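name: query_chain
kind: protein
chains: 1
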Amino acid sequence: MGIGKKDGSELFDEWPAKYDSWFSTPIGLLVKKFETSLLLEMLNPEKSEVILDVGCGTGVFTLDVLSYGAKILGIDISTPMLVQALKKTSSYPFFAIVGDMSALPFPDESFDKVYSMTALEFVSDAAKAVSELDRVTRPGGKVVLTTLNSLSPWAERRILEGKKGHTLFKNMRFRSPEELADLAPRKPQIKTAIHFLKEDDPQQAERIEAEGTRDKRVTGAFIAMSWPKPMKKKDPAW
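structure:
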């Protein structure tokens, strides 16, 4: 997820089962539903595209992108996370590599599209990581980057738990939509989702989410940002 072992990223190695089990709870399923919907809207994956999934974790969101016929290479700092992802995606064209999102081990312009789901929170040099996502994207492609919104109650809770010594949350850095936009190499599109709370009744959460989307609120816990990689200008004909 973007932190090197020297920074304590072995913490992620303990999380595959916990991570997956949370997304199987009633509220976790709703979170996945709305986050996936926004990811797919912005990424617009197409058949035969070669896509990079940065900080893919256990592949919770990878399967949804693969279902569109894309080929995906997933990169994550945690080997146990990748092992879990490979098990889930065994019947799909998914390949995995251990690596750091701040120093992607790929040549320039290697992928049709690149996306990263809630990994930027753990990176010490966010600008470098964003630059790397853009670097490996082919001209005409796009990048989708998501993170946890500092304006949301979800972030406030994690900050509090981090101060109390939570081994994972104390390493996280949250950003607002405006702060995230400042990292983009060119003008981005930004939307938020997850306007409900973890404690909300699932049926009530559906209604709250619909209202938040309709009102275009900027306080949703999940920020999704996308930007295009422009085509190269052709040399003028002489």
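note: Strands lie at 50-54, 71-76, 94-98, 111-116, 137-148, 189-193, 222-228.
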